[in-house]
Design brief:
The chain is mostly helical. 64% of the residues lie in helices and 0% in strands. The protein is built from 14 helices and no strands. The chain is globular and about 60 Å long.
Length: 292
């Protein structure tokens, strides 16, 4: 799920288009080989966009609104290709111009949590909520930080708040389950069943992952279904990042850490840096490695 998939900027509309042919993808798996996409690469097009934005920022006497828009667009591109330090620099620059934009604090909270600085992370998310209580992505990202910090009760409160913004999003439902099961497995299962039954469209991507968790389809069927409607390597990489991460969490909950570790590595292999599943897979993999 785009983490930032789940992010919007109230005064800015900017869409980043990554494209790539599906040629070269391994579109079918057998019992011994995983389903894989070509790992995403930094495209010339995105490098050119960054260069153009950088040139525009050198223009003298830019008004603050234009400067913020250019910095934000470049930061999003940096984030998408995994250059977090460059993205953080641009977000911080924006904050120095305008300290009232919740999405900037949202990003700062994410980066702080990624670096293990949870105090700074919670402070950033709290500031975003104070500025705009309706900025929904604060709740998912703070929930994830709380989840990593093993503060499951406030994490559940935040994820339920986020879920209520769109109860037809199966990815939100999955996170309700993953956090709730840390407190009460039976209640978590009940929430997952009820949420799945209330989905108005069970053909939307992500529903199959919930169905797998509920035992309605097999892992093999899940991997087959994720290919439906896939027309580019980029879309395949996105879906694989999500699917392998949630498979990793599933096997981890069953005590199969070895299998979970493999799934998390597969999730990372797609290089979908701006997906929360990519970041969480890295976190989970680090946790598993530290336990060895």
């Amino acid at each position: 799920m785009n983490l930032y998939y789940w992010k919007s900027f109230w005064f800015l509309f900017f869409t980043i288009i990554f494209s790539g042919g599906i040629t070269g993808c391994q579109m079918f798996q057998n019992d011994s080989e995983p389903l894989l996409a070509i790992p995403r690469q930094v495209s010339y097009d995105n490098e050119a966009k960054i260069a153009k934005l950088s040139q525009q920022l050198y223009i003298k006497d830019l008004d603050n609104e234009t400067k913020i828009q250019l910095l934000y667009q470049r930061a999003i591109l940096y984030d998408a290709i995994g250059l977090r330090a460059f993205a953080l620099s641009d977000f911080t620059h924006i904050l120095n111009i305008d300290s009232t934009i919740p999405d900037i604090y949202n990003y700062l909270g994410i980066y702080s949590a990624t670096n293990g600085d949870y105090d700074a992370s919670f402070m950033a998310f709290n500031t975003a909520e104070e500025i705009d209580p309706e900025f929904q992505y604060t709740y998912i990202n703070r929930a994830l930080a709380l989840y990593q910090y093993q503060r499951y009760e406030p994490a559940l409160h935040d994820i339920l708040t986020f879920y209520k913004f769109d109860t037809n999003d199966p990815m939100r439902l999955l996170w309700v389950y993953l956090i709730a099961e840390k407190l009460d497995q039976d209640k978590a299962k009940s929430l997952l069943i009820d949420g799945y039954n209330r989905l108005t469209d069970k053909t939307v991507w992500g529903s199959d992952i919930v169905a797998f968790y509920l035992g309605k389809i097999s892992e093999k069927q899940l991997m087959s279904n994720l290919q439906h409607g896939v027309e580019t390597n980029y879309v395949l990489a996105q879906r694989l990042c999500e699917t392998y991460f949630y498979l990793g969490k599933y096997f981890q909950s069953k005590g199969n850490n070895k299998r979970a570790e493999v799934m998390f590595k597969y999730a990372l292999a797609n290089n979908v840096y701006n997906y929360l599943e990519h970041k969480q897979a890295l976190f989970e993999l680090t946790q598993l490695t530290d336990k060895k």
